[in-house]
Amino acid sequence: MKALEERILREGKVENDSLIRVDGFLNQQVDIAFMDELAKEFRRLFADAAPDKIMTAEVSGIPIACSVAREFGSIPVVFARKGVPVMEDEQVYGSPAKSFTKGTYATMRVGKGFIKPGEKVLIIDDFLAHGEAGLAMCDLIRQAGAEVVGFGAVIEKQQQGGRLKLRTIGVDVCSLAIVKDIKDGRIEFTESGR
Amino acid sequence: MKALEERILREGKVENDSLIRVDGFLNQQVDIAFMDELAKEFRRLFADAAPDKIMTAEVSGIPIACSVAREFGSIPVVFARKGVPVMEDEQVYGSPAKSFTKGTYATMRVGKGFIKPGEKVLIIDDFLAHGEAGLAMCDLIRQAGAEVVGFGAVIEKQQQGGRLKLRTIGVDVCSLAIVKDIKDGRIEFTESGR
Question: Considering the entire predicted model, what is its pTM?
Answer without folding.
Answer: 0.95
